[in-house]
Backbone:
């Protein structure tokens, strides 16, 4: 069997994600007939059927599901190789650290200080939205990331730094805010900023705070967001304003709620909500001494901070 080409993988991923040859061809800026032939040739080359085609729909076979996952990893690796090579050749290289602003457990200044004592390569922050950090490392836009778990860890190694409670943020005037503690079932009918039901808890990799449409509170199965109430809530100021107005609720790590205390917002513990885990992640098989130094600094600072964090949590409760 001949080796696969990145062009073939790009074509297949587009079809597998769109599950429609027309949309995939438009996404690839090509005509549909050559795309269909390319997929047929790929199936012939591999000797397996990747897609089930009918007049109504396209679906993946088990072999197609496997290839989709592997192809995404391979294409990420190819793109990352080019970006990391260009970065290494820059006159003044840096360690690029991906994170969401304020999602660092309050540890980032101390981590950077500890890192600077061991490594001379400066750190450049690559700020992004919730859930974008792991992909930034995979595709070569960043060398390491500080992010909330769980996250998509394909192609990454990671170490947990600290664990703290998730609290739910809601309008201070909401009836639920009168309680000192809640359960997820109490949040039925409410939506998170990414549009998901609040009573299902944070969405893995997004934690209910990614940019997406939101809706007003109400039964999740019967109401749809009106055009004038849909919001794109991707940044903390937008999210806080929507929470204050009673449009949504949101989950935040306890350290962030201490940083953003507001009279219009009530933060309440949720008894059956899994805690937030802050982690550091980096590419598998990384040989970068700067990345290794950053990981050591992060884990050491976090270990020292655990007793302090426990005291703060006990005082808060």
Residues:
């Amino acid at each position: 069997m001949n080796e696969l080409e990145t062009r073939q993988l790009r074509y297949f991923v587009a079809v597998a994600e769109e599950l429609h040859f027309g949309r995939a061809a438009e996404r690839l800026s090509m005509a549909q007939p050559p795309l269909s032939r390319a997929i047929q040739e790929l199936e012939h080359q591999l000797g397996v059927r990747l897609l089930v085609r009918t007049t109504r729909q396209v679906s993946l076979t088990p072999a197609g599901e496997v290839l989709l996952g592997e192809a995404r990893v391979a294409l990420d690796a190819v793109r990352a190789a080019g970006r990391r090579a260009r970065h290494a050749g820059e006159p003044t290289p840096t360690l690029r650290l991906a994170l969401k602003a304020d999602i660092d457990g309050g540890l980032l200044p101390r981590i950077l200080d500890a890192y600077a004592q061991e490594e001379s390569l400066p750190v450049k922050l690559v700020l992004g939205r919730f859930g974008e950090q792991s992909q930034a490392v995979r595709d070569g836009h960043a060398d390491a990331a500080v992010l909330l778990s769980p996250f998509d860890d394909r192609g990454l190694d990671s170490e947990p730094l600290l664990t703290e409670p998730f609290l739910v943020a809601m309008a201070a005037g909401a009836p639920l805010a009168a309680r000192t503690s809640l359960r997820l079932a109490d949040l039925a009918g409410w939506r998170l900023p990414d549009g998901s039901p609040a009573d299902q808890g944070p969405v893995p990799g997004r934690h209910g705070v990614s940019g997406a449409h939101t809706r007003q509170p109400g039964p999740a199965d019967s109401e749809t967001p009106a055009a004038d109430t849909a919001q794109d809530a991707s940044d903390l100021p937008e999210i806080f304003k929507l929470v204050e107005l009673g449009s949504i609720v949101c989950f935040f790590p306890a350290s962030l709620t201490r940083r953003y205390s507001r009279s219009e917002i009530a933060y309440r513990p949720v008894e059956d909500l899994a805690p937030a885990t802050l982690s550091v992640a980096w590419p598998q098989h990384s040989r970068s001494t700067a990345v290794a130094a950053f990981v050591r600094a992060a884990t050491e600072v976090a270990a020292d901070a655990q007793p302090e964090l426990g005291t703060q949590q006990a005082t808060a409760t």
Observations:
- The two ends are 63 Å apart (CA to CA).
